[in-house]
Write a structure and sequence with these properties.
Elements: E1 11-17, E2 23-28, E3 34-38, E4 41-48, H1 56-59, H2 70-85
Parallel strand pairs: 1-4
Antiparallel strand pairs: 1-2, 3-4
Subunit structure: Part of the 50S ribosomal subunit.
Protein name: 50S ribosomal protein L31
GO molecular function, one term: structural constituent of ribosome
Length: 86
């Protein structure tokens, strides 16, 4: 491997799935400002919208996660399109 191209700041980081509050800890070099305390130990915190505990592929459940309102915008446009078509 080439020297100097890999990050040096690998550390334990907590990732929190915001859709179901599941937290898992793994090594990462991601930068973050938030922290979380788990079992008396403080970890850097990264908030994610979807993880393996909430993704439909892994859970087998169809669950709509829309944080930006994109689905509503699409449905409104689709509704107007269908009304024009009639």
């Amino acid at each position: 491997m080439k020297k100097g191209i890999h990050p040096e700041n690998y550390r334990l980081v907590a990732f929190k799935d915001m859709s179901n509050e599941h937290v898992f800890i793994t090594k990462s070099a991601v930068n973050t400002k938030d922290t979380i305390t788990i079992d008396g130990v403080e970890y850097p915190l990264v908030k994610v919208e979807i993880s393996n505990t909430s993704h439909p592929f892994y859970t087998g459940k169809v669950k709509l996660v829309d944080t930006a309102g994109r689905v509503d915008k699409f449905m409104n446009r689709y509704k107007k399109h269908m009304e024009k078509k009639k």
